[in-house]
Request: fold
Amino acid sequence: MGDAAERWRERQTGRGIPDHVLRHAPADPWTHDPADFTPPAEPADTPSHRAARAIAERAAAWTCAGASVLDVGCGGGDAAFGAAWPEPSPVARVVGVDRQADMLAVFAAAARARDLPHGTVHGSWPDAAGDAGRHDVVVCHHVLHNVVDLPPFLAALTGAVRTRGGIGGVVVEMLTEHPLAWLDPLWERFHDVVRPPSATHDDAVAVLREEQGVDPEVLTWTRAARLPHDAAWVTRRLCLPADRVEAVAAALVDLPPRRTDAVTLTWSP
Reply:
């Protein structure tokens, strides 16, 4: 493992939940509510969606048919459906991969609502890569900061690209730092746990260069401000019981505004 990959691993491992805290968690702090991931009817116009759409359009033109899009860690499918918007769409089929079966149900329902042929793969990446197949466009939004061993994850994203005519590509969207770094003061306040610095998008780019010799296109942009998660959501993330919701709500008032900077990484095999 190279220096960049080891740095990513150390930073991600250091941000795990300590065993003595996790053992007493009243609920799973990692499971997401599918209702929070229902894709909008009209995807936002973002650099990530535009990048994926551009690759899909080139692939569709090359084959005189629609492109295939693979969405890794798909949630409800916002990344995949963003590549297919607006009509007329260059996308002929979308496939979603997710470790939560209920997320895949949301993805499939959204694809049916759009009359878009689709498939789903239940599993974690890169273990599920063999079942996912190869596609013209591979998109992966806000998943990298859930990964500790980054080289095989990124290698599987690149390996899932179908390079007809050298056209296919990968589009990754992430934040400049860990998406839960804004809660670091609360970990110290409620658990006396001091979080180490987060891995950043620069660290991810360094791993790509070191492990694959890939120099991705990097675009930093400001996304729409997210509504703050409510105190009950934060309480579960902090592994605290429900009777601490009021204390968490009071603590949230003192936190600075959440950062809204995002990054789009685009590369081809």
